Amino acid sequence: MTEVVAALIWDKDKFLICRRQANKARPLLWEFVGGKVEPGETKEQALVRECREELGVEIRVRDVFMETVHEYPDITVHLTLFNAEIIDGVPQKLEHQEIRWITVDEIPLFEFCPADEEISARLLANAGSE
Predict the structure, then answer these.
(1) For residues 84 and 59, is the Cβ–Cβ distance under 8 A?
(2) pTM score, whole prediction
(3) Structural domains in the chain, sorted by start
(4) How far apart are CA 92 and CA 104, in angstroms?
């Protein structure tokens, strides 16, 4: 099983999502920024590195929002999604086709990677209970 981390980055009532490149696995689907945990890294260190590489920003990793396991045809991932905040920089499209700030209400308008669909559902459920 592959350890993967992702960031739920908020700016007021919107959070950041990223669209995968057409030439990558799960092409053109939307996801939360993040990636694989490398040997010797903590999950938090991996997330800081991934946000630097993919968005050109420095983040502060907060608490775990949720964890999920998903089996793709080519890989099984254990995804840990952390709440995070940008402490330096403005997100740039360094590795993604598109990045966008959306509200929870806009989630149904985007097609997410299967591992991220459970996260999207949790965000929608939490919004409904507030």
Answers:
(1) yes
(2) 0.91
(3) 2-128 (3.90.79.10)
(4) 22
